[in-house]
């Protein structure tokens, strides 16, 4: 039995980047041998095991043979006869198909080291076209390493176009598309993800909203220059560049975007269009109500970041923050006390209405100054 470090850990080590997790491939072993050594099996579709002490992943060397349509249409074979080279050959990109022995020797049968030096994202073999998910993965790695000068090789881009032309992308599960897209949004250059997909003729069927040139330019320009604190905000600002909330809703439904992200995306789109009138008290009141900021005050800070990225100046943001904090200080208890002092009573829905009215008045007062 032989064990090799593989994949992203080897790639990132060679690039001088921090290695966050390590994956290993095991050649010449059976599941029974792994279990006897204390490993815990976690893989359902193929034998993957967790180390008994480190919880790092150890996968038995395997081959994959195309047996059906889409990214799930593969027959997997994992047995002691599968070689390291065969296991590496099934991988998507050469930069992910490098192995390292315990003593640091690199095993690189497909030219991954040369591609790292050339800053090139290239497929391992013609089998690349068998898995449509690889189109999204290649685009994601282009985004991840764009600032290091990496580009997709021309011959790989041609294979990506072939996959697009065969409508294989439509076979992907929306959860997988969303998962890859979120990873791309976490990179420093999420705009590159969509640029590569466009170059690969792969915006449809998952991102048809971006096929309009004006929208594509607005989205990629925005994503290229962001300075926000979370991936959720990156997504919201992407949605903010779509023409209307109808397109936001269509995209979010198609990808099954989490409800919280969907709502923030709606708000970013809605208020980007209305930013010229954002400082009007009626517009601010409507926005804060829709954002549910009184129950979820953290959402106001998200809105402030979105508005900053969308061009709202520091003075206006400070005024909005003051309006929000002033309105937040409105107390139902204080309003009830004031009502009793006037000989009045507030019950049931009247209390909520009085609180909202007082908040609206506080916002209006701050914004008129």
From TrEMBL:
Pfam families from the UniProt entry: PolyA_pol (PF01743), PolyA_pol_RNAbd (PF12627)
GO molecular function: ATP binding; CCA tRNA nucleotidyltransferase activity; metal ion binding; RNA binding
Organism: Pseudidiomarina halophila
Transmembrane regions listed in the UniProt entry: none
Database matches in InterPro entries: CCA_bact, NT_sf, PolA_pol_head_dom, PolyA_RNA-bd, tRNA_CCA-adding_enzyme
SUPFAM superfamilies in the record: Nucleotidyltransferase, Poly A polymerase C-terminal region-like
Domain Poly A polymerase head as annotated: residue spans: 3-122
Keywords attached to this entry: ATP-binding, Magnesium, Metal-binding, Nucleotide-binding, Nucleotidyltransferase, RNA repair, RNA-binding, Transferase, tRNA processing
One BP term from GO: tRNA 3'-terminal CCA addition
Family: Belongs to the tRNA nucleotidyltransferase/poly(A) polymerase family.
Cofactor(s), by name: Mg(2+)
Domain annotation tRNA nucleotidyltransferase/poly(A) polymerase RNA and SrmB- binding: ranges: 149-212
Superkingdom of origin organism: Bacteria
PANTHER family with a match to the protein in the record: MULTIFUNCTIONAL CCA PROTEIN (PTHR47545:SF1)
Protein name: Multifunctional CCA tRNA nucleotidyl transferase/2'3'-cyclic phosphodiesterase/2'nucleotidase/phosphatase
């Amino acid at each position: 039995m032989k064990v090799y470090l593989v994949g992203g850990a080897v790639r990132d080590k060679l690039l001088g980047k921090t290695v966050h997790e390590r994956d290993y491939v095991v050649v010449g072993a059976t599941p029974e041998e792994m279990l006897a050594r204390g490993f815990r099996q976690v893989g359902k579709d193929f034998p993957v095991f967790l180390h008994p002490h480190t919880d790092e992943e150890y996968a038995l060397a395997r081959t994959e043979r195309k047996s059906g349509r889409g990214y799930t249409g593969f027959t997997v074979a994992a047995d002691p006869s599968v070689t390291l080279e065969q296991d590496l050959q099934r991988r998507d990109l050469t930069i992910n198909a490098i192995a390292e022995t315990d003593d640091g020797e690199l095993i690189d049968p497909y030219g991954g080291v040369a591609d790292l030096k050339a800053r090139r994202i290239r497929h391992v073999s013609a089998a690349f076209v068998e898995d449509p998910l690889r189109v999204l993965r290649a685009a994601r790695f282009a985004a991840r390493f764009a600032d290091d000068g990496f580009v997709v090789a021309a011959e790989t881009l041609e294979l990506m176009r072939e996959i697009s032309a065969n409508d294989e992308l439509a076979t992907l599960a929306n959860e997988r598309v969303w998962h890859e897209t979120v990873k791309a949004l976490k990179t420093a250059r999420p705009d590159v993800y969509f640029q590569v997909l466009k170059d690969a003729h792969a915006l449809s069927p998952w991102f048809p909203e971006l096929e309009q040139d004006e929208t594509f330019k607005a989205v990629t320009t925005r994503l290229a220059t962001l300075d926000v604190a979370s991936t959720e905000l990156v997504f919201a600002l992407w949605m903010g560049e779509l023409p209307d909330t109808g397109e936001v809703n269509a995209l979010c439904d198609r990808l099954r975007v989490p409800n919280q992200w969907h709502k923030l995306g709606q708000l970013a789109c809605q208020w980007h269009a209305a930013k010229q009138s954002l400082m009007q008290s009626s517009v601010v009141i409507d926005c804060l109500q829709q954002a549910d900021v009184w129950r979820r005050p953290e959402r106001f800070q998200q809105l402030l970041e979105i508005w900053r990225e969308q061009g709202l100046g520091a003075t206006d943001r400070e005024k909005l923050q003051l309006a929000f904090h002033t309105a937040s200080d409105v107390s139902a208890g204080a309003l009830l006390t004031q009502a009793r002092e006037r000989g009045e009573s507030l019950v049931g829905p009247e209390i909520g209405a009085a609180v909202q009215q007082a908040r609206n008045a506080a916002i209006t007062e701050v914004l008129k100054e």
